[in-house]
Structure formats: C-alpha cells, structure tokens
Design goal:
Helix content: 40-55%
Distance between the termini: 46 Å
Strand order of the largest sheet: 1-2-4-3-5-6
Structural class: alpha+beta
Strand content: 5-15%
Number of helices: 11
Radius of gyration: 18 Å
C-alpha cells in the first residue's frame, strides 16, 4: 500500500479546509538569507534559566524555543509526515538547541504545515499536552515516522476504504488509530481519552489548515521543510546549508 493510495482514500478529511492541492515534501532553496559582517555576541538568559528550555506558543500558532528577542529568528514550516523534515530533525535538533538557541542569538519556531491526511491528526496529538512538550514530541515523532507508514501499508485496501467512507468528523481519529499515532503518543504521556478529545477539536484542526493557507499566501510555502529567517524565505535545504545561513546572519 503506497502513501499516495492512502492519501487518495482519505484526503477528504483535510482537503476542504485547505484548498491547497497536494504540496510536495521538499522545495527548491531560495537565496534570501540576511547577512552580518560581524558576529553577534552571545546573549545571556535570565538568571537561573536556559534559553533552550524556554518554549512558548506564538500568536501565529507556532512553538518558539529560545530568546523571544533573539536577533536571528528562524521559523521552520514542517509536516510531521514529511521524510525530509524527519531527516532534518535528526541532523539539526541537537546543534540547533545546544549551540544556536542556547547562545541567545537564534530563536527557533516550529509551525506545522498540512501536506496530507496524516498531518492533521499528528499535529493535533503533538500539541495535545503541554506547550513545552510540543517540539520534543515532534522530534520523537519524526524518528518514529517510518513505523507509521509501515502500519498503514499493513492495513490493506479494504480497511483504508472503510476509513474513507466514514463521516468526515470521524476520519481524523480513524487515521490516528489506524496509523498507530494514538499508541505512539499514549506511550509518551498523552492518555487515550485526552487524545480522543484533541482529535475531536475541529476548531484547532481548522486553525492548522488556516495556518497552512497563510504560509502559502505569505511566504509561498508549497513544501516542507521551508525556512524563514528574519522574515526572508530561504526555501528548503538540509541542516548543513541552513547552519551556514545562520552563521552568515551572525551566529558565529
């Protein structure tokens, strides 16, 4: 069973509010990075705190780690179903947190982007607990992501077709169960009853869809991961390329 087959069957769960068509899990890099001729000095956190431990939800619906007044503001538009995002997370999480965010010079904000029917339930579950848990849970989900697709492949056409025939308000929860997401998050502190309530939050699901549309309109985001630095779109790239851009902007 291919990912495209699953998407064809159940895409109706998210397609109507998105009105975006199918985006790709990758896009060409652009050259809009800011630059600084001088390195930016490290910025000390408040007494008794560490920048990398400070995570808050932003008015735009993202989750920002680090100094809210950091001179270099990095935003990643990412999809939890995206293999490129998973690869980026594996390479970048530790140095991003311990080298760049910890310095106070860079803040990192994760904003979810809906590529396909997996991303709605995954994002609802990743944000079902505390704000501080969202980024770590996302990183863990990306590491687990291949298991999700294996679970879906094992279902077979008949079960997938049955999901597609459910009322739309039931499809998100059915996708989460069938793909193993509920079990994944329940093993990480999101109880099944709590998960059920989060998956039924239609207002939050619509907000995620609206956030995706806004990213497309404002930054021409068509795939993931897409990076924004200080309001300039860099497109998509790997960690080594992005790290060079952060250093170019003064984080060196």
């Amino acid at each position: 069973m291919t990912r495209n087959r699953f998407r064809q069957i159940v895409f109706g769960a998210l397609a109507a509010p998105l009105a975006l068509g199918l985006a790709a899990c990758d896009k060409k890099a652009e050259d809009g990075a800011p630059s600084s001729s001088e390195p930016i000095a490290r910025i000390a956190p408040p007494a008794g705190k560490a920048w990398q431990d400070m995570i808050e939800k932003t008015p735009e619906g993202g989750y920002r780690m680090g100094n809210p007044e950091a001179p270099i503001k990095l935003i990643e538009y990412a999809a939890l179903s995206c293999s490129h995002c998973a690869e980026f997370s594996k390479e970048s999480s530790e140095p991003m947190r311990d080298d760049y965010v910890a310095s106070g010079r860079v803040s990192y904000e994760l904003r979810y982007f809906m590529l396909n029917p997996f991303d709605g339930p995954a994002s609802l579950l990743a944000t079902c607990g505390s704000t501080e848990a969202v980024i770590p849970l996302s990183e863990q989900f990306w590491a687990w992501q291949p298991n999700m697709f294996e679970n879906v492949q094992a279902l077979g056409d008949q079960k997938l077709q049955a999901i597609g025939e459910l009322p739309k308000e039931q499809q998100i929860a059915a996708i989460a169960d069938a793909s193993g997401m509920v079990n994944f998050f329940s093993s990480r502190g999101i109880a099944r009853d709590q998960a059920k309530a989060c998956l039924a939050d239609t207002a939050k699901a619509k907000a995620l869809a609206d956030q995706t549309q806004k990213a497309s309109d404002e930054f021409n985001v068509t795939g993931t991961p897409t990076f924004i630095v200080n309001g300039s779109s860099l497109g998509s790239m790997g960690w080594k390329e992005l790290e060079a851009k952060l250093q170019q902007a003064g984080a060196r």
